[in-house]
Amino acid sequence: MNAVIDIAPAPMQQGCGDAPVLRERGQREVFCGLAGIVWLHRKIQDAFFLVVGSRTCAHLLQSAAGVMIFAEPRFATAIIDDRDLAGLADANAELDRVVTRLLERRPDIKMLFLVGSCPSEVIKLDLSRAAERLSRSFSPRVRILSYTGSGIDTTFTQGEDTCLAALVPELPASDERALMVVGAVADIVEDQFRRVFDGLGVGPVHFFPAHRAGEMPPVGPGTRFVLAQPFLADTARALELRGAKRLPAPFPFGAEGTTLWLQAIAREFQVEATKFVSVVGPRRERAARALARHRVLLEGRKVFFFPDSQLEVPLARFLAREMGMVPVEVGTPYLHRQLVAPELALLPAGTQLSEGQDLERQLDRCRAARPDIVVCGLGLANPLESEGLTTKWSIELVFTPVHGFDQAADLAELFTRPLARRMKLVA
Q1: I need a surface site. Which of 67, 71, 248, 283 has the fewest CB within 10 A?
Q2: Are 233 and 352 found together in one domain?
């Protein structure tokens, strides 16, 4: 096993750390931050998300979450109608009435999020003040917070970022030295990571957000946190203001990314190299074997990323380094260099990076490149498919468990599946 003590391969020469970035500001094609409720309401199991928005907001959530009419989900929409928009009704009084009725009906709710939307921002409804006012009435039984899920100048994953950033000031204070994993991951992924941390002897370990409102982790100068998602810039800043220290690392996508992510944690907590190899080595080898069959189909093929989820840079790294694909363009809504610096260093030199979007220009570049697969939002997928291009929905990469060693092959399959489908259709 001595041969795999240096278990992470060396970065590609040069990489894209200092690569020029094409910055575009024009028409965009993205979902709004309300989509984050779909996975957040499953993660925080005694929280309720009340969107203050329009019927369109309600339809989006119903469609995205697939909630049947007889279900009792932990999210809803307080509809802003024409009377509210015209100023004929007191929106704050109406909101108080809706919240009171909701909490009377659902005594199981321990945390209530008032979620802003485009309509609530248009009428200047101050949900932060509303949350403070309602908290005085319902504390300590229910904690009431607010955040924005508006689609104005944001992308859909930022709903999680604004939600967690709103939670950070509410976290209990502690000087205890501990690890915090930040970002909503599937329960199965959390369990897998806990087993790895137990094997490495790293602890205590907290996941943020926690499963229950009353179990949110403490934070303070002793906290070391590592991001599980690349779109949590506001949350990272809020944690640093509480005294926590971020551990820079690539994100845990694929065998290599997960190894480097764990390596950054092991280095901070002074895990011996032999222990790291004994715990991580077999897991990495299993993941590499599972990835090998997908590489056969993906190697040498071109991939083009439209900006959508902010997962684009780490996914491009995974596809380039572990699947042998050629990233033609890696577009992302926002390029947070501090958060993705380790990822950029691993991208192939010469990769075109773009930030923001001018949709028509990017479509022209995509058509000219004729990539083998295009990663994009739902709104672009069908039109591009009709032009003969193979697409992968960005949102599926957020909804599907893809972190860690055991999910590495599942992540690769999300890219091989549409290619295999296309091959069958043209055969």
Answers
A1: 71
A2: no
